Adenosylmethionine-8-amino-7-oxononanoate aminotransferase (Litoreibacter meonggei), 439 residues
Amino acid sequence: MSHVFPRHTKSSLPTVAKGDGVYLYDHSGKAYFDGSGGAAVSCLGHGDRDVTDAIKAQLDQVAFAHTSFFTSDPAEQLADKLIAHAPEGIDRVYLVSGGSEAMEAALKLARQYFVETGQPQRRHVIARRQSYHGNTLGALATGGNEWRRAPFSPLLVETTHISPCFEYRGKRDDESTSDYGLRVANELEAEILRLGEDAVIAFVAEPVVGATAGAVPAVEGYFKRIREICDTYGVLLILDEVMCGMGRTGTLFASEQEGINPDIVAVAKGLGAGYQPIGAMLCSAKIYAAIEQGSGFFQHGHTYVGHPTASAAGLAVLTKLTDGGLVDKCAVMGAKLQSGLMQAFGQHPNIGDIRGRGLFHGIEFVEDRETKRPFAPERALHKALKKETFEAGLICYPMGGTIDGKQGDHILLAPPFIMEDRHIDEIISKLQTAIARVL
Ligand code: PMP
């Protein structure tokens, strides 16, 4: 009997034995194409020697030293490199162990910023209904995913949620795409005014919504209007790029494609590429200065902040993404995968929408393409898709319908950036097999 506390207590999973390039292998020797990089983590695939060598070298040097006493070379170099590639105005990096920690740090820093600058009455956070920001209590409160929040609702700080920007599901037939973007962005202004002009700390959003929606980018102009509203009311803009950042959408930061700069941005997943648990919260010079000139100390911290070995992994990964050209490769392969998916599934009677950016794609399933009616939740189509794709030797990330009970089941594809042209055919043919078995 296994003593591991699994994700689902009633399921039994194969044991992973090995990873090599774009494949994972179980103990029977069966190969699985890692079509979702786990959960958009394994951007370099498996067994990357440059990264494992960097980790080993760091372990031989010094595995860990607490940040109360020391900084470390890999942490300093990783922070320098992140800032060299970060959106304009972003100036400091706080290294943590994952995405929830990065978001937790972002929320606390935003609140402390207003305490330090004499606006302690600001206490509200606004986020979007279709979002996931992590599973710790602060991040969970911010996320809009109702079923995840429900059991813990008495423990969650109050956060209000506005509409997401989701053209396929949200745009009315009688409005243009840009009018739709402005309409949903303006919900932020209405919510700020409802809560009180000087009551809000931050607006939190994923530039391309990941797990809850299946790679949904906002329409053009949406984030520009959001930035404008935040500036008008002195509200900080926190972008959660835990899933969509680190090159996944074809640019290192997803926000680059929106033409805006956040005040705080969270990254994780692809930063460690699965080789070490690492995340980062990056903030603007303005926010850092407020802390520096105020109490001089960010009232937060975990034992493993700035962990040297995790930082060495992050530095090796980031070097491959940027200097090694893998972000550019992601953009090129992403365009090919997108057109392959459109060709193979664009006319499928039960596929309503194929969307995404870079190597980050969502496929949404519907019972009726005309009306966009989802399959009944009791059918649990996403679970059947997970089972059949896995059976076919393809890992993809499934999710049931969520938004306001209206969205269809979807699968998320987030393959490693090292994939080659032949892998596009492999993904498509395995998907075809699995979909034909389910529908
Ligand atoms: N934000 C987003 C957008 C995510 O997708 C995730 C993880 N799925 C998180 C935060 C939380 O990250 P972690 O699981 O590393 O804590």
Remarks:
- The chain has a mean pLDDT of 96.
- The two ends are 36 Å apart (CA to CA).
- The pocket of 4'-deoxy-4'-aminopyridoxal-5'-phosphate is lined by residues 39, 98-100, 103, 132-134, 206, 210-211, 240, 242-243, 268 (CB under 6 Å).
